[in-house]
Amino acid sequence: MTDARETATRTTAAPVPLLDPREGIPPVTASPEALASVVAAFAAGSGPVAVDAERASGYRYGQRAYLVQLRRAGAGTALIDPVGCPDLSTLDDALGDTEWVLHAATQDLPCLAELGMRPGALFDTELAGRLAGFARVGLGAMVENVLGFTLEKGHSAVDWSTRPLPEPWLRYAALDVELLVDLRDALEEELRVQGKLDWALQEFAAIAAAPPAPPRVDPWRRTSGMHKVRRRRQIAVVRELWLARDLTARERDVSPGRVLTDAAIVTAALESPPNVHALSALSGFGHRMGRRQLEQWQAAIDRARALPERELPQPTAAYTGPPPPRAWADKDPVAAARLSAARTAVSGLAEELNLPQENLVSPDTVRRLCWAPPADASPQVVASTLASLGARPWQVELVTPLMTASLTARPAPPEAAAAAPEPPA
Q: Which segments constitute the HRDC domain (predicted)?
């Protein structure tokens, strides 16, 4: 690092704009030959490797990567085009067990895995910031607060599938990994001082070892505005339109929202137009939509209208967990009292430790344990149950005494339980 950068990490002076990468903007790697050179350079580098990926969310179907950025001491920065280099397994092999440094790792790991890249170890600077108690944990805020530099974030939502990529976008992309390792080192020291480094390492290991997320069940239920749709026949219309839109979006490789908006789907479900003429009069199906498209959407509506009653979707998705907390006071007042006590205890400890409540223990874990506690609520059994629900060892150690006390305490009045604030999901 230059003297100016070193000074910025030690002072509270006004942040310094970071305008250009140290070695300039590297050429985009878009051929097997160029990739081989990058692989050799990064294999010969030293220390952790900063990794980032840019997607075309809102423009293209799915969450594939359209640019991968890496930086490592001794290798510099590389910008890799996954369109020209769709298989990065050779790079993954060259890095071996090298620690990856990412910001908000869970956002980028799935699209990197599609390219053949999976970390053996990682350091997540966003999660590290949360555990260290930072109020703002976006990359720009962290770089500014910890290192004293400001990053330009004006290109975060552009269409990264554009080719060729404009130079300002490439500069932005290179700067996103410019200081990631520096940020990692500063946060590691901060966590060590706070006595939280082992907690963070356990969290990072859990992320790196996590299996791919299973496909979401009934993804159409996440349609924005779905809460307005109450009748099962109307819900069927939402499902059929969503599935038709998803198929079209996949075939055209465009974001589903650019094919048909969620608002239009909900409007059609509520109005249930009988024909194309009536459909064309609805918001979201205006004059810009061609006859063929209108017929496609009307066909989906007609399919829903023709379904027998037994095949209509249920109003809510099947769920094996406890009911919503707002219903506990009526369904099981004793469980509601347990939940109130547990939430109060967890919230107090999280505040004392200066970290988000949901990072101390998952709210879902607390709910499940309070709704169906073990018959033997001893500390050993509670600890084992927390671990089985996915809590890491550091969480089990800190939360077991709180949960044991909450599960064995004399129940508070149901009114107090119902009034307890609900933590973030």
A: 231-311
